[in-house]
């Protein structure tokens, strides 16, 4: 489908637009949560793309469009829309024939990662991906300590099931340190998660 | 990221919303182009998912959000946003470890498929996918004759290059019939494109 859109405007403006939003709880969450991590990952994926290492993109934010103003034929303006819950993970793509699928989350907690950061259908999606021999994982950032970890889906599934069966509603930092792979923030790429994935899956 | 969104509303409403838009050129293109095809493909992908055949999703429509109203804490309302051009194809996912990536387009023409239906960066994206050993193709629907074809990316690339080098700006129906694979509309799944892909790539 071909959409009319304003020239010169770039997706990067979106983060700026977000930060300009009024400082209500929603706005704060929205502008703070995952922003740095998202930008670092987009930068990393751009590096992977330009270096011919992988083709991985972040999916657009799912939006339910209710009213579009076509008054100006040059530019269709969306006048009413709502954020929708994502039914899949945010990032997917391909690296040397391997299907890559992951979610990236940040937490301000120093001691644990709250599982409420995930929706059940995102976990379901990762289960489906693994059943199709895709590679699914999560990148977790502890924003206070600036630590980034890659956690394979099999561990996420285990901790999710523990919660479902009445256990704790989070993954302890200890557990993430024990089962996850720490990613040092680099220059190019900033977050070299594929290095770890290629070690794990030997490709 | 977790967004507040109105309960009960479904993504399916989007198409309804689209059709309700005023009948300007933009609106007509928007509501007519790819709608039936998109719904049939979503239905097909749902079938693939529930049958454990593949995990393939349509990416959300890329929207550049300019203003969000957080007045009601329960619901963040997007008050100003614009359609952005997609930098990738619309559909991707995984089938038995194989990365699947495709675009779906409709044309009212009976004799040819206009290449202006594609953006150069979508073609670039498919080139990147193929370089990473992913499977890229396009599903073309001739809406007047209700015919659907799957065309492998290598042919799309050839016709695109022909246009770049001063040749015709479309793929003739003859060429699509000759090099494409016709897909009969079925019941479940409606558009069984994976059957063709699995024959071509033998998996």
UniProtKB/TrEMBL annotation, chains A, B:
Keywords: Cytoplasm, DNA damage, DNA recombination, DNA repair, Endonuclease, Hydrolase, Magnesium, Metal-binding, Nuclease
Enzyme class of the recorded protein, top EC level: hydrolase
Keyword Ion transport: no
rRNA processing listed as a keyword: no
Transmembrane segments: none
SUPFAM superfamilies reported for this sequence: Restriction endonuclease-like
EC number per UniProt: 3.1.21.10
Stored InterPro entries: Resolv_RecU, Restrct_endonuc-II-like, tRNA_endonuc-like_dom_sf
Reaction(s) the record says it catalyses: Endonucleolytic cleavage at a junction such as a reciprocal single-stranded crossover between two homologous DNA duplexes (Holliday junction)
Protein's cellular compartments: Cytoplasm
Binding locations of Mg(2+): 88, 90, 103, 122
Cofactor names: Mg(2+)
Main location: cytoplasm
Site label Transition state stabilizer, positions: 105
Free-text cofactor note: Binds 1 Mg(2+) ion per subunit.
Function in brief: Endonuclease that resolves Holliday junction intermediates in genetic recombination. Cleaves mobile four-strand junctions by introducing symmetrical nicks in paired strands. Promotes annealing of linear ssDNA with homologous dsDNA. Required for DNA repair, homologous recombination and chromosome segregation.
Homology family: Belongs to the RecU family.
HAMAP family: RecU (MF_00130)
Name the UniProt record assigns to this protein: Holliday junction resolvase RecU
């Amino acid at each position: 489908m071909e959409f009319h859109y304003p020239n010169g405007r770039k997706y990067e403006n979106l983060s700026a637009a977000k930060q300009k939003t009024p400082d209500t709880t929603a706005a704060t969450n929205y502008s703070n949560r995952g922003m740095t991590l998202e930008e670092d990952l987009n930068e990393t994926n751009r590096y992977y793309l330009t270096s011919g290492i992988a083709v991985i993109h972040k999916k657009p934010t799912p939006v339910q469009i209710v009213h579009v103003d076509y008054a100006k034929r040059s530019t269709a303006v969306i006048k009413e829309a709502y954020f929708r819950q994502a039914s899949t993970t945010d990032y997917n793509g391909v690296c040397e024939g391997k299907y890559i699928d992951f979610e990236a989350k940040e937490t301000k907690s120093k001691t644990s990662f709250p599982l409420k950061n995930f929706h059940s259908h995102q976990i379901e999606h990762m289960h489906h991906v693994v059943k199709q021999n895709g590679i699914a994982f999560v990148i977790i950032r502890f924003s206070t300590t600036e630590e980034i970890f890659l956690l394979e889906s099999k561990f996420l599934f285990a901790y999710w099931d523990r919660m479902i069966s009445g256990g704790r509603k989070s993954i302890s930092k200890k557990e993430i340190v024990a089962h996850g792979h720490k990613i040092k923030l680099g220059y190019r790429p900033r977050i070299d998660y594929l290095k770890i994935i290629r070690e794990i899956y030997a490709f």
